[in-house]
Amino acid sequence: MHTFTGHKLNHLHDMKKLDLVVLQAELDELQKNNEKKRKIKIATPNSFIIADRIDTDAPDEQRLPLLDKALLKSEDTTLKMLAEGNVVNVHAMIVLNDVKIIPFSNPDLNMEYESFALYTDHIMGITLSD
After folding, report:
1. Which residues pair with residue 2 across a beta bridge?
2. Sequence-ordered alpha helix ranges (H) in 1-130
3. Phi (first) and psi of residue 52, to 5 degrees
4. What is the pTM assigned to this prediction?
5. Cα–Cα distance for residue pair 90/15, rounded to 1 Å
6. Which residues, in sequence order, are CB contacts of 116 under 8 Å at separation 6+?
7. What are the backbone dihedrals phi and psi of residue 74, each rounded to the nearest 5 degrees, phi first?
8. Cβ pair 44, 103 in contact under 8 A
9. How far apart are CA 61 and CA 64, in angstroms?
10. Which residues does residue 94 pair with via DSSP β-bridges, in sequence order?
């Protein structure tokens, strides 16, 4: 039996998640010498989500926020179930760090979070902040 962990890619891929992970890696490389780092801006059906970055690093469990720890453990359990054939899920989740959510219905109401999990089926498009 294979062992899968949530922070590693497995044989099932959500193409949106894969695209975002590759985009973040390329963005990190292109911006490594820039002082002003551009942020990821994601459009969903009812808000813009602006994040410092998409979490693509191997997790350091000693320094993870509580939500990230819980999601990592949950993803490991889910991948084990996928490997056993008990669950089918074509949508992945991405973890965003230092997030601001701007709802279309009230753009003056900004919500900020240390970390935020977003399911990829809610993503309509992505861009970079100014």
Report:
1. none
2. 15-31, 66-84
3. -55, -45
4. 0.67
5. 9
6. 49, 51, 67, 95, 96, 99, 101
7. -65, -45
8. no
9. 5
10. 118
Contacts of 41 by beta carbon, 8 Å cutoff, 6+ apart: 48, 49, 50, 126, 127, 128, 129
Residue-level pLDDT at 47: 97
Look over the chain and give the mean of its residue pLDDT values, rounded to a whole number: 77
| CA-wise closest residue to 8 among 77, 54, 57, 53 | 57
Measured CA to CA, the distance from residue 4 to residue 9 in angstroms comes to 8
Token look-up 């999990």 returns 117
What pLDDT, on the 0 to 100 scale, is given for residue 63?
64
Closest Cα to residue 115, out of 31, 59, 46, 38?
A: 59
Structure confidence by residue, pLDDT tens digits, 84-99: 655 555 667 788 889 9
User: What is the length of the chain?
Assistant: 130
